[in-house]
Amino acid sequence: MDKKRLIPHLKAAFLLLVILILLAVPLLVYNPFPKTQTIEVIGTGYIAPVTLPISLSQDVVDINDGDIAKLSTLPNIGPKLAQAIIDERKANGPFFYPEDLLAVRGIGEKTVAGIIAYFLGGPIP
To answer: What's the CATH superfamily of 36-120?
Structure first.
């Protein structure tokens, strides 16, 4: 091909590349999973913003199976509260809902709201 015939093709290819980049940028910037979501703690009337974990596959803790080390990875849960969760679980059975954690001494509505995104409880009765 001679240069005169090639230039329009190069211009069209460049224009197509620019259009594709302009279409792709919003897709790269858009985050379909917001970092903060408002969740109501069922039955309490308490509504709080909750920070969701970055990776949904990691950071999820099975409240009914986790040991002290795993439960201590939850926000605002240290070894003492982790042991209290385990004691409550042994005494009264599995937790079915995040709100069931309110029965644990030392855990309030704000703590439940902070860990609700990490909660993996039992089957719905």
So the answer is: Photosystem II 12 kDa extrinsic protein (1.10.150.320)
Taking only the tens place, the pLDDT of each residue in 58-73 is: 457 788 888 999 898 8
Across the strands, what pairs with 47? 40
Q: How many residues does the chain have?
A: 125
Quote the DSSP letter at residue 83: H
Q: Are β-strands 46-51 and 119-120 bridged in parallel, bridged antiparallel, or unpaired?
A: unpaired
Q: What is the pLDDT of residues 29-56, one digit of tens each?
A: 655 555 555 555 555 666 655 555 444 4
Tokens of 7: 């230039």
Structural domain boundaries in the chain? 1-30, 36-120
Q: What is the Cα–Cα distance from 37 to 30, expressed in whole angstroms? A: 16
Q: How far is CA 97 from CA 6, 71, 86, 123, in A?
A: 66, 16, 15, 9
- Written as six digits, the tokens of 74 are 């939850």
Instruction: Kindly state the tokens that stand for 20.
Output: 């594709």
Beta-bridge mates of residue 38: 49
**Global pTM?**
0.52
